[in-house]
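I am sending you the entry underneath: sequence plus fold tokens. Let me know what the token row says about the fold:
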Amino acid sequence: MMCVLLIVCKFVFVSVYSKLVEIMLRF
């Protein structure tokens, strides 16, 4: 259970981080 949660958290973090980088590059 914990392992699955960790994978999901990592996926969400990567997704959010890439979105932030995209916004930063735009400015």
In short: Residues 18 and 24 are 10 Å apart (CA to CA). DSSP finds one helix and no strands in the chain. The helical segments are 2-26.
